[in-house]
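Q: What would this chain look like folded?
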Amino acid sequence: MEYIIQNEKLTISVSTKGGELQSIKSKDGTEYLWQGDINTWPDKAINIFPYIARLTNGTYEYRGKQYHMSIHGFLPYSEMTLFSKETNKLTLKLSDTEETFKMYPFHFEYFLHYELCENQICIAFEVKNKDNKTMYFGLGGHPGFNVPLEKELSFEDYKLEFSEKSSPCRIGFSDTCFVTGEREPYELKDELSIPLSHNLFDKDAIVLCDMCREVTLKSEKGTKSVKVSYPDMDYLGLWHVPNTKVNYVCIEPWSSLPSREGVIENIEKQENLITLEAGKTYANRWTVEIV
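A: My prediction, written as C-alpha cells:
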C-alpha cells in the first residue's frame, strides 16, 4: 500500500513495503526520485535495517550462534504498518516477528517518520529495544535521485558539492564489496565537489568517512538541485549500478559499515555498529531538501 503526504511545495508517496519512498514531486510536477528499472536497479529509495550492505556469506555471529541475513537487512522486504498520518506527516512501524527473530534474535520496534516542512523532507529513524539484552545494528537510507533533473542537461553536467571544504577518506572495498580495512584520502575538486561521470562507479560504491555532513546534487547549467543533510551519520555512500549509463545517483547516509572481507562478523564486537541497551531508544534523522 502507498500513502501520500503533501504541503504547498512537495508531494511524496511512501510504500508500506520497507517504508520506501516512491515519489518526490515539487509543485511544478518535477519528479526528483529515480523511478526504478528492472533491467538495472529496480528500487527507488530503500531504508536499511538492521545491517548495512553485505555480510560475508550472508552470515554473522551472535553469542556463539550464526544467523543469516540478506543485503541491507530485512527492512527493505518487510511490510510495515501505519502508525499515524496527517496531511504532511507519516509514521510507519515494524516490530519483530517469528521470521525476523530467525535472522535477528532481538525484540524491537522500528519507527520510520516522514515529515514535510516547506521544501524539505525530514526522515527520522527510531529504534526501541524491547528486549532484555543489548541490541547491535546499523541503519541508513539508500535513495536514488534523477540525473539530469532538467531535460536539456546531461549526467555529466552535474556534481555533488559539499557545503564546506573537507578532506574525506574513502573506505577500502574489495572487488566483492566487502570492507578491506584500508582507508585513503579522497580528493575533492577544490576540496568541495565530485564531478559526476558514469565511470565514477565502475568499481561500485564510493563510501566516505570524515566528510562534510551536507551535500548537494546540482549543475551550474541548471536551476534544480537536491540537498541531502545527515548530521549524525558517520558514513556516506555514493553509487549507481557499475558499468552502466543510468540516469540516477544514490546518496546514502549510513550509520555503520558492511562486513570485512572474509570475516564472519561477531556483531557484539563490530566496532562501527550502534549499541542499544535493553529498554532504551535510539533516534537519528536526515533530510532531503528540494532547492
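Residues 2-290 form a domain with the Beta-galactosidase; Chain A, domain 5 fold (CATH 2.70.98.10).
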